[in-house]
């Protein structure tokens, strides 16, 4: 094999796999309000996966632009609204949530994403559950 072909093959395998690791994936959000009788389980899509990052061990030697830590985030999304069942009249029974259409590796935008990884995630219902398929 020629060196050009070998390098092209390695480049394609390396960056082709990396790009495919950040993609929309199915996810269930559990939503409940204290005033409402039910918990709503919502099927949606979120951006999930891995992105290439740079090692920041040499941060004193490198420019800040070379220290980017990319995350899997929304490229295209829209918001959907669900009605939480069993709410009294004085409570707003609606919940809006993002639906990922496509994803990208990039900087985390705090305008619409939670950029902090929590150690403990509680994604469950404490009340009777209703399923919402949107």
Description:
It is a single chain. This protein has one helix at 3-20; strands spanning 22-32, 39-49, 71-83, 94-106, 129-133. The termini are far apart. Helices cover 13% and strands 40% of the residues. The model has no long low-confidence stretch (mean pLDDT 76). The protein has a single domain, classed as Cystine-knot cytokines (Cystine Knot Cytokines, subunit B), CATH 2.10.90.10. The longest helix has 18 residues, at 3-20. By secondary structure, it is mainly beta. Strands 1-2-5 form a three-stranded mixed β-sheet. Strands 3-4 form a two-stranded antiparallel ribbon.
Q: What's this model, at a glance?
A:
The protein is mainly beta. The chain has one helix at residues 3-20; strands at residues 22-32, 39-49, 71-83, 94-106, 129-133.
| CATH third-level topology | Cystine Knot Cytokines, subunit B
Please state the overall shape, judged from the principal axes of the Cα atoms.
elongated
Number of helices: 1
Give the C-level CATH assignment: Mainly Beta
- Looking at CATH, the homologous superfamily is Cystine-knot cytokines
Family: Belongs to the glycoprotein hormones subunit beta family.
GO molecular function: hormone activity
Subcellular location: Secreted
Pfam family, one: Cys_knot
């Amino acid at each position: 094999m020629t060196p050009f072909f070998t390098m092209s093959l390695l480049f394609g395998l390396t960056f082709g796999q990396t790009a495919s690791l950040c993609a929309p994936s199915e996810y269930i959000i559990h939503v409940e309000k204290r005033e409402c009788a039910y918990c709503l389980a919502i099927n949606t899509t979120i951006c999930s996966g891995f992105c290439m990052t740079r090692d920041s061990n040499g941060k004193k030697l490198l420019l800040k632009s070379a220290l980017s830590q990319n995350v899997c985030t929304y490229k295209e999304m829209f918001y959907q609204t669900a009605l939480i069942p069993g709410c009294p009249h004085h409570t707003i029974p609606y919940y809006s949530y993002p639906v990922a259409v496509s994803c990208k590796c990039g900087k985390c935008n705090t305008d619409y994403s939670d950029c902090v990884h929590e150690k403990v995630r509680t994604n469950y219902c404490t009340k009777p559950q209703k399923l919402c398929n949107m």
